[in-house]
Write a structure and sequence with these properties.
Length: 216
């Protein structure tokens, strides 16, 4: 069950493009909630609707967790996009599952972590995608605050933004993804989703997404 990262990354990218979980449109950029204009739109929840792809992602996550992080006590999902993925992984590994909210509930027990965790337990966090990494790392911090030993995080996709790389480095959290922006662009070019003339603009967006597209 050895990991072949390039093979996994290209296969995952192909699946995401195939089901339009990721869309690329260099001429008509999407606008994120933050206001950033982006040539890429990602909705990995769509993978749950395709049993073959859902199973592939689950099994690749299991490989990464087993080979990279070793034995863990709990699998945690980041709400809401990774709750289902995390639960599938936990079921396959026969481990307890919890999920971390973006903020505490405003009623009842006001939980931030839903499920049972105990101080000293080791955890791997499951995420669907990573942009700047801030929301993902908030979940990591919540688990650390609960006394957990967070071994790292696995995600389906990362935009490979410089801010995310720095944020994960600063937090001391290992991030492993099934695919990334580079492999997505490679597969999209190979499959004809984009043209060679789109490449420079797509590279520029990744380098500085806050200023890209301001003249569009």
């Amino acid at each position: 069950m050895r990991i072949n990262f390039e093979e996994t990354a290209l296969a995952t990218a192909e699946y995401l493009l195939q089901i339009k979980a990721i869309k690329l449109d260099n001429n008509n950029p999407f606008t994120w909630a933050s206001g950033i204009k982006s040539p890429i739109y990602c909705d990995n929840r769509k993978t749950l609707s395709y049993p073959k792809i859902r199973t592939y992602i689950r099994q690749e996550f299991v490989k990464y967790i087993t080979e990279v992080f070793g034995t863990v006590d709990i699998i945690a999902g980041v709400a809401t996009g990774a709750i289902a993925q995390g639960a599938l992984v936990a079921q396959e590994l026969g481990l307890p599952f919890v999920y971390v909210r973006s903020e505490k509930k405003s009623h009842g027990l006001e939980n931030l972590i839903e499920g049972v965790v105990e101080s000293g337990q080791s955890v791997v966090v499951v995420e669907d995608l990573v942009s700047t990494g801030k929301s993902s790392l908030n979940a990591v911090q919540a688990l650390r605050d609960a006394g957990c030993n967070v071994k790292g995080m696995v995600a389906i996709f990362t935009y490979q933004l410089p801010d995310a790389e720095q944020n994960f480095k600063d937090s001391g959290c290992v991030l492993k993804t099934l695919t990334n922006y580079d492999f997505l662009i490679k597969k999209a070019l190979e499959q004809g989703y984009i043209k060679n003339t789109d490449l420079q603009s797509l590279i520029q967006w990744r380098e500085n997404p806050k200023t890209w597209g301001l003249d569009k």
